[in-house]
Amino acid sequence: QIRLFAVKNYGRVIHEFDPWFNYRAAEYMVNNGWQKFQAWFDEEVWYPLGRHVGSTTYPGLQLTAWGIHSILHAAGYAVSLNDVCVFMPAGFGAVSAAMTGMLAWEVTRRPNAAVAATAIMAIIPAHLMRSVAGGFDNESIAVPALVTTFYLWVRSLRDDRSWPYAVLCGFSYIYMVAAWGGYIFVLNMIGLHAAMLVAVGWFSNRLWLAYTLWFLIGTSGAIFGPARYLVGWQPFQSLEQLGPMAVFFGLQLWQLTEVLAARRKLDATGRMLLRLKIFGYAGVATSFVGAFLLPEGFVGPLSARVRGLFIKHTKTGNPLVDSVAEHQATPAAVYWHYFHFTILITPLGLFATVFHNKSDAKLFLVVYTIVGGYFSGKMIRLVLLISPAASVCAGGFIDFAIRFLMDAIAEGDVGDVAVSQPKPPKETGRPTKTAKPPKGARKPPTARQERASSASDASSIWKELEEVYAENVVLRRSLGLLMVITLSLAAFRFVPHCFSLGASISEPQIMVRGRQRDGSLVIIDDFREAYWWLRDNTPEDARVMAWWDYGYQINGVANRTTIADGNTWNHEHIALLGKCLVSPESASHAITRHLADYVLIWTTRHAGMHADDLAKSPHMARIAGSVYPDINPQNFYMDRQGTPSKMMEASLLYNLHGWKLDPKIPPLTHFEEAYTTTNKMVRIYKVLDVSEESKTWRKTHGPGYPPQLDDVIKTAKAFQQIHGFQ
């Protein structure tokens, strides 16, 4: 219910931007099959370059939608693909909650903790943000895949007979790889956990077997599975994926040491010397291979997005990555917003759960919570990753509070008897008169000795408090009751908070609601209105230039060719798009006439919402300036009073934004207003004097820039990713 607000308020509508591409891709897969999907080169996007979808898409979401749609039709239910895609995130959100409960059970072995974790995960906003109906995005299936993989991993370590769960974990990981690029987090979490088990001295034969099975099956599936075109050989070449591979080989060497030591009947010292010798030989061999056999550049650097997790936002070295709002560092207020009281009891739950009956699964929870918590602070969208861990920890603390109270109540008269028992009398006799210390007696205590004495006194005080606590059942009952009442009051605030935020998160963005002067609600549908106008009033082969954010919606709703979209695979092409928008009208038109027939811009500030293209334009200038030296982003800005710089004031974007609405805007020469939506939130302009020669060249020669743009392309410098941390 908490995930269906959008369906109740707006109907069965796909949300936001990326889900529109995902829906369009799923539709293509359903209509054409898996083989054609893999070979699909989409001519209607990234004009004039196009895009090979099979090598730039994680296909797990589309495969899942196709499978559900096919099963329902085979069972006689005529459900539309749109409905499947709308409801899938809500359904998989329930799967995430159930698997989080299973993870909590495996970690704590407490049914109360499992039930509480399931309930929290079912409604916690940090999970809702990617699992509401209509949000047909990769994360909606990736989170249940992540939690399932983690559960199967810790389950495989329960005992020596649990190795089949490692096989299932490998297949679950393959699905995770097909679903989302966040599989790298899952890969490194399992690798780090295995390494930590060895580091704390908990190596076992079941750890070696489970990790070996998982790694071999999972890595093979990643390389040769559904996402093979996208993943390729990255597990052996990508710097962020080499750590788990090193753990794999390290475990093989460790197991070899154990086997040889057992056969030779070596003692602990001999076992250690043998281990050092084997690892030393392996280190020399690895160094030789890395230095002399691997080609230069075989191992690539960290990607911009991963590097952004270790450095301050806007410092990743890639202005395109830095321009995305959800890549910003997470403010502290976001944690209360998305986790509410669970963020306060998560550390308490971790402590109460882990430091009692230690196990491999509990160490995993420690590693997951700490590492996930760190990365969630680096990027807003990554608070999603920590939601299962927070739910398990919070569930563990709720279970602890209930057990604490129940145990105190169950003591009954036993505790009362203990309290009434008299304490042994203290010795009260006065000491005899002390004689003078003889010669050679100890000197007065030093400062260090006094500190040691103080520590001893503090220890004795603590022991005395423990005795009072152990003897006083009323105190224990009061503390337990206080914890349970506090948690109950927090829950009474938590549940309404989740439902309120769930309704807010469910707003589809492609449609918004507002209030009229009389207070009545009205749906503002300017975005779809603009796309429908393009669909109904432009030629089928019309090309629409818009900032890359809106490309998916233009493709999915208007069914028109776009210049760029949210895939952002080609930095230089987006820089060319940015150059068109931030350059003066005449300079822009000289390029635009060879690329587009229409220009679409968001002007939502005219309706009181300021996240429009004018607000994004400094990012456009930075991206353009990273490739084209004639664009100086330092000169493109708007001050706090809303006054644009000279460069911004002269730009095409600024002039299209304010045409006929700002008397200071001069008449347009090369562009003509075609359509402005009802609430002036979207404006569409027709490009005058479009180059038919360039359009014909593209149809004849295929993907590529027409020769008429050679002079512009020659001025571009290939974008060089800044790999430094500054």
TrEMBL record:
It is an enzyme of class 2 (transferase). Pathway: Protein modification; protein glycosylation. It is found in: Endomembrane system. InterPro entries: Oligo_trans_STT3 (IPR003674), STT3-PglB_core (IPR048999), STT3_N (IPR048307). The chain crosses the membrane at residues 174-200, 207-230, 274-294, 335-354, 361-377. Keywords: Glycosyltransferase, Magnesium, Manganese, Membrane, Metal-binding, Transferase, Transmembrane, Transmembrane helix. Its cofactor is Mg(2+); Mn(2+). GO terms for cellular component: endomembrane system; membrane. Residues 417-455 are annotated as: Disordered. It is a multi-pass membrane protein. Residues 3-391 form the Oligosaccharyl transferase STT3 N-terminal domain. GO terms for biological process: post-translational protein modification; protein N-linked glycosylation via asparagine. Its EC number is 2.4.99.18. Its main location: membrane. Residues 543-600 form the STT3/PglB/AglB core domain. It catalyses: a di-trans,poly-cis-dolichyl diphosphooligosaccharide + L-asparaginyl-[protein] = N(4)-(oligosaccharide-(1->4)-N-acetyl-beta-D-glucosaminyl-(1->4)-N-acetyl-beta-D-glucosaminyl)-L-asparaginyl-[protein] + a di-trans,poly-cis-dolichyl diphosphate + H(+). GO terms for molecular function: dolichyl-diphosphooligosaccharide-protein glycotransferase activity; metal ion binding. Belongs to the STT3 family. This is dolichyl-diphosphooligosaccharide--protein glycotransferase. It comes from Strombidinopsis acuminata.
